[in-house]
Write a structure and sequence with these properties.
The complex is a heterodimer of chains A (about 280) and B (about 100).
Chain A lengths: L8 H13 L14 H21 L8 H29 L5 H6 L10 H4 L5 H22 L5 H29 L3 H15 L2 H4 L4 H8 L10 H14 L21 H16 L6
Helix pairs in contact in A: 2-3, 2-10, 3-7, 6-7, 6-8, 6-11, 7-8
Chain B lengths: L13 E7 L7 E7 L3 H12 L7 E6 L11 H5 L23
Antiparallel strand pairs in B: 1-2, 1-3
Classes of the chains: A mainly alpha (about 280), B alpha+beta (about 100).
Chain lengths: ~280, ~100
């Protein structure tokens, strides 16, 4: 596949044509994006898309009308960012796929989101626990990406970080209120954090793809964000009078397409309409 | 609604929301939200009333803290003003050289 330093869509397309001409281009159209940047954008975009879709499940079911709106607003923030990231991923891929094609016409094994975002909502405490952990991580990630050497990615991150800062603050407020609330709310929040803690390590997992991109200043070194994340989480948990969750070993695999059973169910609902009625329009 | 009446309900208290549309304008009442405390009332107000760029500043006030006039006293409070048109500043001749009045 194309060498890494040049990442313009036209370069990718040219390299593919060359590979085609030599007769050893055999990647089927519906599988992975092989280019490193495309792969990275898929990871970022899929995280946002799947968490956004999860949050929409609360629509009409939240504990109060105002909370319903909060969750829907955050879902739309995430899906908006996902659209920008996946559109760019499609552009980098150069095969004419846009965000909709990537969101609705990939199967579960081709998704590159981390395992945390695909986990079921559980109760409100569990949803807020997940959102707090992910948004706290994502603020650090997006602040780093706002300085990416890829200007398109930097622009998306700079816009997104303002939205996600609010997510981190709002969800931290709920961690404190539920953690330092009633006996029942405290128990539920402890359980919610325990459930999601095993998926935290994956947020900071680096592999060859991202190390190469980070070395070129395109991506952020996730591992370097961990100390800041741990400090932010510890501060909120202390305010919430909650114990630090512990889990012996993080679960990994989402970036390779090794998902939990939950993602398939989510995709079945999300993809049903555009697959059943391919040209359906609002 | 008598704001101070104790309620048996476990509902969150009500907060009135005021939005400043842009610098130089005053805050204007836009509605209310339920929230357990002021900080979350502010978040709910933001999420409910400023989703479409309606404002640059927010106030939230506990509804119970607002002292309101009694509708039963509307007669003595407001009707006497009806017969006092001279209170409107429309009986003066304004010189042409004076602008912006």
């Amino acid at each position: 596949m194309p060498s890494l330093p040049t990442i313009q869509p036209e370069d990718v397309a040219a390299a593919e044509h060359a590979a085609h001409d030599e007769g050893h281009f055999d990647a089927p159209a519906e599988t992975q994006i092989d280019d490193a940047l495309g792969e990275y954008l898929l990871r970022l975009g899929d995280d946002n898309l799947i968490l956004g879709q999860r949050l929409t499940e609360w629509c009409g079911h939240a504990p109060a009308l105002e909370v319903d709106l909060s969750l829907a607003n955050m879902a739309l923030d995430l899906i908006g960012q996902a659209t920008l990231l996946l559109d760019l991923a499609g552009e980098v891929e150069g095969r004419g796929r846009d965000a909709d094609a990537l969101a609705f016409h990939r199967d579960v094994l081709a998704f590159r989101n981390c395992l945390m975002v695909e986990q079921p909502n559980g109760d409100f405490a569990q949803t807020m626990a997940r959102h707090f952990l992910f948004a706290t991580f994502q603020v650090a990630l997006l602040e780093g990406l706002a300085a990416s050497t890829n200007p398109r990615l930097a622009e998306i991150a700079a816009k997104g970080v303002k939205e996600i800062r609010y997510h981190a603050e709002l969800s931290a407020d709920w961690i404190v209120r539920l953690g330092d609330g009633t006996v029942e709310s405290r128990e539920r929040m402890i359980e919610g954090l325990d459930w999601h803690w095993r998926f935290v390590d994956e947020l900071f997992q680096m592999d060859a793809v991202e190390q190469d991109l980070a070395a070129r200043g395109v991506a952020v070194d996730r591992a370097a964000l961990r100390a800041r994340f741990d400090a932010a989480v510890a501060a909120t948990l202390m305010e919430a009078t909650l114990p630090a969750p512990t889990y012996p070993r993080g679960v990994l695999g989402g970036r390779k397409g090794h998902h939990s059973e939950h993602l398939g169910h989510l995709l079945a609902i999300m993809q049903y309409l555009p697959r059943s009625y391919p040209d359906a329009r609002w | 609604m008598s704001g101070d009446a104790p309620r048996a309900s476990r509902d969150w208290p009500l907060w009135e929301v005021f939005v400043r549309a842009r610098g130089g304008l005053s805050h204007k009442h836009v509605g209310s939200v339920h929230a357990p405390d002021g900080e979350l009332a502010m978040r709910h107000a933001r999420d409910t009333y400023t989703r479409r760029m309606e404002g640059v500043s927010l106030w939230v006030v506990r509804s119970a803290d607002i002292v309101a006039s009694d509708p039963a006293q509307a007669g003595e409070l407001f009707e006497p003003a009806a017969s006092k048109v001279y209170r409107h500043p429309t009986f003066y001749d304004i010189p042409d050289v004076v602008k912006h009045i």
